[in-house]
Amino acid sequence: MRLFRTLSRTPLRAPLRATCFAACGLLCVLSANSVKAEVSSVEKSEKLFNSQVKQFISKFCLDCHTGKDAEAGLALEKFTTRTSILEQREEWEKIVKRIQIQSMPPKDAGELPSDQEREDVLAWFDDALYGVDCSGDVNPGRVTIRRLNRNEYNNTIRDLIGVDFSPAENFPSDDVGYGFDNIGDVLSLPPLLMEKYLDAAEQISEKAIFANTPESYPWKKISDKQLKKEGAVTIRRSGAGFHSRGTLKGTVNLKQDGEYEIRIIAGQTPAGDEAAKMEVKLDGKPLKTFEVKADRNSPEKYTLPKAIKLPKGKHDLEISFLNDFYDPKGPPKKRDRNLYVNEVAVRGPKGKLPDDVPASHHKLITCTPEKGRSERYCAERIFKPFMEQAFRRPVSRNEMKPIVDLVTATVESGRTFEQGVQVGMQAVLVSPHFLFRIEGLQDSEDESNKIQNVAQYELASRLSYFLWSSMPDERLFSLAGQGRLDDPRTLRMEVKRMLADPKSEAFVKNFAGQWLNLRNLEDLSPDPRKFRVFNTQLKADMRRETEEFFAYIMREDRSVVDFINADYTFMNENLAKFYGNDKVKGEKFQKVNLDKSRRAGLITQASILTLTSNPERTSPVKRGKWIMENILGTPPPTPPPNVPELEESAEGKQNMTLREQLALHRKMPGCAACHDQMDPLGLGFENFDAIGRWRTKEGKHKIDASGKLPDGRTFESPVQLIGILEQQKDGFCRSLTEKMLTYAIGRGTEYYDKCAIDEITANFTAKGYRFSELVTEIVLSDPFLKRQKGSRK
């Protein structure tokens, strides 16, 4: 929620509480005084509403906004008290935004409020809508139960099971709220997604655990390079052809003792009255002679009926063609009997794990039912740690029992123990306790206490999904189990550790990718006739530059002001050539210093400039809007209805420059208030074309990147404008705080979060604007560490 006048307030909770506990009598006095002060504040607000605000609405708003024909369907005559305003808080936030930017009443209205009248009304709304007493307990909010989004699901499966598999790539796209896809309110569970979860659980369990069934053992082929021949045999990549009597020899190297199976895929060309006879020997001893009746074009599998018990080591396998036959006078297709062997393969040993069993199998199957250990005993040993990791908290025996029962029932039905574990794993992976981050299970039953500290294991999940988009690691689990995780010193250490961990790459991809709209690059396609150099690789490199830039500021703990004015960036050879730099070589991205005569910070990176352009040309409006939203933290309101796009309003003005077209657009009713702020910001970066290349002319027109902001400040170039934006760094820091807090807690910020946002911003800016301090202050804030019981308010 954006506040129109930011008033930083010093937190008074700690000294207040100390005083209260020291003197019970003083507590009563303070409480009484607090109630009196609150009543007095409300009474004062009511009086101001009646003496100023009500008259303002009547004088400047009701002419257009009354009755069923009210403009934009907004009837305001019903708002006659302060309470009626607060009951429609969200509606009035939009209205106040328009009053602030002076689009209500519009400049072409008959009578306009004076600056003082507007300021007085805005001050009243600021206090009424957003005023919160930060000296007492403040509502920390409550997050809606949150489903794992696609990135979180993939990362959690990776860390929980250890399989190189991303099943969520096939899931439906996640909805976005407040700019992010990890917001609890929008992460629904449609039936199609539930089906995808079931399919994914089955695939994951089969990839992670070797089923230990006869069919699950892989056949290991003997390659053509391992084969030798005797007689009329031709060896090819696709197998071997026996054109007369001959023998095919190969060596089988077994690494374990045990029972093995041998399979040969073969076919024949028929002739005479017999089928081709294929003899199989091992270590010189005949095993079986097969009659190969299958046609060479439709070969069949010939497997020895029983597994052979063999010691480890090398064994000689021989395949011979016994009954060659040729009749030149026979039917055309039955004159020459030949044998064709397409594949020779061995599998086993039965009952023993293959050498190439996945590492996840050994990680998960920590107990097997042998030497007196029952299936139930081993299932409990396996699923207690697995379920605790999957559910991200301790589990009881009652929670484990249905899973253990499922494993034992599967084994009793005739399947292997490993198959039972697969089925149990599937049940865990579709459990709500895995798919959702559920908080409040450990809340106290004391209904008088509506504010709870987030439980230790829940806090571990908040931390890990904030910075890693994945489940907590062993250290976070351990600290939670010891009850130490909520200690401020511990949290500070954990934030630094987690930001330095490679898994923090997920924070770059998911937070920065959405905050800066980098994900939208994938869907952009600039006009190929105008921008022939733009291709898929360049697009990927543009995005990578911004991600590397963000990651550097994060890992090197730089000032977040670098996002605005950094004199460095990251390039590989391909991107450097695009920028006109011939000194960078190789595909690897490397840090490059900028002279700041043309480029500095995020705004002049090609990814951002491309995102804020149209397919065929630049868009000063989009660029100005992006700066207002992401740098200044003052997003413009939604355009009024029935306002034409720039192209429509400038029809027939093709000879005009874009600057001239925008000036014409601003003359239209309802446009000037927003465009007076957006247009100069966007025009200041007109030296960059629609894909971010530097230019001094557009067609025959010389680029004019100068401008004047509504507050009177002027600039002549992009870098000068960046210097002006740098002066607004406190507004940027507050905006970044609000965005990151939203991402961290998984809900949109509300008016009661003002105190926390003020405190986080003040604390981290006072410590040098360091990135880690911003993250740490968010983690130490009430919205992150606490939660409100019951339904959200």
Automatic annotation (TrEMBL):
InterPro entries under this entry?
CBM60_xylan-bd (IPR031768), Cyt_c-like_dom (IPR009056), Cyt_c_Planctomycete-type (IPR011429), DUF1585 (IPR011478), DUF1587 (IPR013036), DUF1588 (IPR013039), DUF1592 (IPR013042), DUF1595 (IPR013043)
Which GO molecular-function terms appear in the entry? electron transfer activity; heme binding; metal ion binding
The cross-references to Gene3D superfamilies, in alphabetical order and at most eight, read:
2.60.60.40
**Entry keywords, A to Z:** Heme, Iron, Metal-binding, Signal
The Cytochrome c domain is annotated at 40-129
Membrane-spanning residues where? none
Asked if the keyword Transmembrane belongs to this entry, the reply reads no
| Keyword Transferase belongs to the record | no
What range does the record give for the signal peptide?
1-37
Question: Entry's Pfam families?
Answer: CBM60 (PF16841), PSCyt1 (PF07635), PSCyt3 (PF07627), PSD2 (PF07624), PSD3 (PF07626), PSD4 (PF07631), PSD5 (PF07637)
The protein here is known as Cytochrome c domain-containing protein
> Which organism was this protein described from?
Gimesia panareensis
